[in-house]
Amino acid sequence: MPNTLIHTIEIYKLYIPLKEPFVISLGPINEVQNVVVVIRTSDGFTGWGECSPYMTINGESIDTCFIVGQYLAKALKGRNALDLEHCSSVMDGIIYANTSIKSAFDIALHDIAAQHAGLPLYRFLGGEKKKVIQTDMTVSIGTPEKMRADAIRFTTKGFPAIKVKLGESKEKDVARIKAIREGIGNEIPLRIDANQGWATADEAIEVLKALAPYDIEHCEEPIPRWRFMELGKVSAASPIPIMADESCGDDHDAERLIQLNACKMLNIKLGKSSGFLKAKKIVQLASNAGMHLQIGGFMESRLGMTAAAHFALLHDSIEHYDLDTPLMFAEDPVEGGIVYGEKGVVEVPEVVGSGARVKEEYLRGAERVMV
Fold first, then answer.
1. Which of 20, 105, 276, 346 fits a disulfide with 133 by CB distance 3.0 to 4.6 angstroms?
2. What are the strands of the beta sheet with 46-51, ordered from one edge?
């Protein structure tokens, strides 16, 4: 195996304001709080990674990622950056879970490996540019009037699908979808995401049946993820196809859901899977099972979303793209990387590696540590 040794690792806290609060059933997000990992090798390669920890989903915060990242950095320093499986095993051997911060390291290591191979990241991963990536745009929870106005605005901009955050009572959620459909008509696909908001399988089934007349493409994570044994019941009774999100973190979760015949689709996020290595295993498992996939994220900047977009080109089974969060930022801290075109088109850079990095002015004043 080729060899390029990890020389230094830098970890930064990145705070970015949003244009407006982003609200889901698990609570509001008022500011982006991400962690950037920069890995430098002894022979001059630099890899960039980012994670967006989500306390109520992956149990991590910007502070825990900053601390745990130092444990990971000390363990990885001096190791071969190109031995991706070994580096992943080292991180798993240091600490259980903590998938968000592990993903930032994994993304940075893959960036280095792709650069070393002289390939764009998507090609290094095994993907091809044979499809157009178009992201949906998300409407967060609010009044029916506000959600309708947001949906109309996104539809006017040509996004191919509107994703709607739900997860409260049947009455409130039906009123929201009714208002949105009245505003945008019936031509644009609607996707809904309850973020575990409906407390039981029976409640979820009741709400999903009430929403069926509004032509919903699919529903993400209708019930609490710890009720995964009941997700199959929801899927069997729901007129709307079910996509697992919070209940599908890594490849072990995916294998369990597939064995349970729990859902028709899976939502892959690098911050849940610990990065590319385990996400690729999810794709293989889902492909073998004939399942459809979505690639999404948390609140990553264009750095993290560039990594996700490269991954989206990996396989034909990845059909849905939820890569919209950088469009919610009040500032763009990234240079290079993906470009958002008209109608939600996401252009993946044809450069060696991922092609994205954080602008120096955002790193200069950030809290950081170097190992």
1. 346
2. 46-51, 27-41, 6-24, 368-370
